[in-house]
Amino acid sequence: MPLRIEALPRMAGHLTFMRAPMGAVSNLEPGMIAALGIPVDARTDAGGATRFGPLALRETSAYFGSHFASNMKAAMDVDRRRVLDGAVVAGRLVDLGDLGCIGMTAAEQSDAIERIVAAVVGQGAVPLVLGGDDGVLLAVLAGLAGAGANGGGTSPLALIAFGLDVLPGWRGGPLIHLVPTREPSADALRCIAESGGFLARSAELRELRATAVMDRLAGAVGGAPVHVALDMSGFAATWHGMNQRAPFDGLSLSEARELLEAIGTLPIAGLSITGLDPTGSGLSVVKTGQRLILTAILDLIYARLDALRSKADTTHA
User: Fold this and answer.
1) Are 161 and 177 spatial neighbours (Cβ–Cβ below 8 Å)?
2) For position 201, what pLDDT does the model report?
3) How many structural domains compose the chain?
């Protein structure tokens, strides 16, 4: 029987994030991205189903499996109409599976999340957290801060929150809120200002060129390790067609992708994706909405790994 040398079809093999190989924390190496599912919905209402978010993200990401196959020399991103270099990601993305949260108290859950995130960062890898609701974010940030974020660094962790409520009492580095889901209070605005960060609504972002947005982001971050928190509950549930209508508080898909791709060039220490209820209208059976959103996340991942490769090439030169 001949051996198969082509990439597996989407319906075959283990269901991992973007068809990455399964891995363990102990096998992680510096520069890797480690996907970790946290299937919880403790902060949603009775009808919420964000605990199915990690599974839904993995299912939809199977469409992108060929991006990361080293033998795919000319994989095409049909949404961006460009040829992808699979070697950028091959061997650098792994899936750690889901954290076993069933039966845990809220305190035990937070402690487990904090410990595994700290362990991933301790290996020099970047955790890619697949939520779950945004309640996991505080534990993720605690794990990053406890590990020194990015392998023992001393700079305070910066947070870029995309589509989240403003976090009260933030005590880290710069806090940058992009397209918040609701108008922040005066105390929240003061917290953002005191951290050295800023808040930008979708209307403000659309008026600026990408270079201007990046200049402002880079200036606020100042070289500190960054955690990017993307909450998908901000996307309109009816956003499931191949269109460019403004679904994310007035921000179009192309604008969201351009923004995330730019953020990917920053020194990212972690990335969390929360707030996906796959049972919601427009984000379930057809999955077109999820697929389009994942193209934006892909841009961020590619930009992050491209930046690391460029840095390594410069160092070796």
Assistant:
1) yes
2) 83
3) 1
